[in-house]
Design brief:
Elements lengths: L1 H10 L7 H52 L1 H7 L2 H23 L2 H14 L3 H18 L8 E5 L6 E11 L6 E8 L7 E7 L4 E2 L4 H9 L26
Antiparallel strand pairs: 1-2, 1-5, 2-3, 3-4
Keywords: Membrane, Transmembrane, Transmembrane helix
Pfam families: DUF502
Protein name: Membrane protein
Length: 243
């Protein structure tokens, strides 16, 4: 390696006193490129784990307050930030596992249906809860006759983003099939945009949900070598009907 560097330096007529400076820049750049994926991974995990720990944090605080009434010195010694974080995370994960276990049983399904019926009577809560639950259910099941993961022209024609088809509707008057497409953002896919796009203007893909999420979170670094070709867009008149 050093022989090659020296040869390249002579071929480019680089003075010897510049070589240490070039090595420092090269090593810094290599270190930065090695660190960035680790940093992004840590940010994603920190966000997810912090959100999960935040759910169980109030319960841990209540347990510590109850312990303080019996053994104040023990409770004070346990009030360490990292310990509270771990205990809250374990409690949340355990609760989620238990919830999933119960939801897969007949009794649990009846309880959830009764709970859904109760929330359905609260207008504002039903709008948020019901809409979110339907979105989660839609993303788990492929719509009939339509590929789930698509490419969409956004924010203008010629620029493509990855989107998830959540619903297909019929436009009144023209009879066109319109797709509701959720467009997540990078690297946090929990935020995004919703577009209603004519079905014939979508570019279908053979990607799975896991492949699409890996593509979005990695900023496009984890991606296939080829992309599907965009369909030939039909010409339309001023009313939006085929010309």
């Amino acid at each position: 390696m050093s022989t090659t560097v020296a040869y390249n330096a002579k071929a480019l007529h680089i003075p010897d006193h510049f070589m240490p400076r070039l090595r420092v820049k090269r090593y810094l750049l290599t270190g930065l490129l090695t660190f960035i994926p680790l940093w992004v991974t840590w940010l994603v995990f920190k966000f997810v784990l912090g959100m999960l720990a935040g759910i169980g944090a109030p319960l841990v605080a209540a347990l510590l307050n109850g312990l303080a009434l019996v053994a104040p010195h023990t409770a004070e010694s346990l009030k360490m930030e990292w310990l509270v974080f771990i205990v809250a995370l374990v409690i949340t994960l355990g609760a989620l596992y238990l919830l999933g276990f119960v939801a897969n049983r007949v009794i649990g399904q009846r309880f959830i249906n009764a709970f859904d019926g109760l929330l359905a009577r609260i207008p504002l809560v039903q709008t948020i809860y019901g809409g979110t639950k339907k979105l989660m259910a839609v993303l788990q099941n492929k719509p009939s006759g339509v590929q789930r993961v698509v490419l969409v022209d956004f924010p203008r024609r010629g620029m493509k983003v990855v989107g998830f088809v959540t619903r297909v509707m019929i436009e009144e008057g023209s009879g066109r099939e319109m797709a509701a497409v959720y467009i997540p953002t990078t690297p946090n896919p929990t935020g995004g945009y919703l577009e209603v796009v004519p079905l014939d203007e979508l570019t279908p893909t053979d990607w799975t949900m896991d492949q699409a999420m890996a593509f979005i979170i990695s900023g496009g670094a984890v991606a296939p070598d080829t992309l599907p070709a965009s369909p030939a867009l039909p010409r339309r008149d001023e009313t939006g009907n085929p010309a």
